[in-house]
Write a structure and sequence with these properties.
1 helix; mainly beta; five-stranded antiparallel β-sheet
């Protein structure tokens, strides 16, 4: 797993695998889920990290994906 923070965009990117991302889905809470060709979650990006309060439950994201 790799975690990157981008100060310019105030976002954090959590990468779970090195699979190629073939699709993404933006959730209403300011998070973006990246999928591979098997529809498995590859990464999660969270926007506006410092300026917005976030409560993201990974099991909930996994079930809704």
């Amino acid at each position: 797993m790799k975690i990157q923070y981008d100060n310019e965009t105030d976002s954090i990117y959590v990468k779970f695998s090195d699979d190629t991302v073939v699709g993404s889905e933006e959730k209403s809470d300011g998070s973006i889920i990246d999928f591979n060709d098997k529809d498995e979650i590859v990464a999660v990006e969270i926007l506006h990290v410092k300026s917005t309060s976030h409560e993201i439950e990974i099991p909930t994201i996994l079930k809704s994906a």
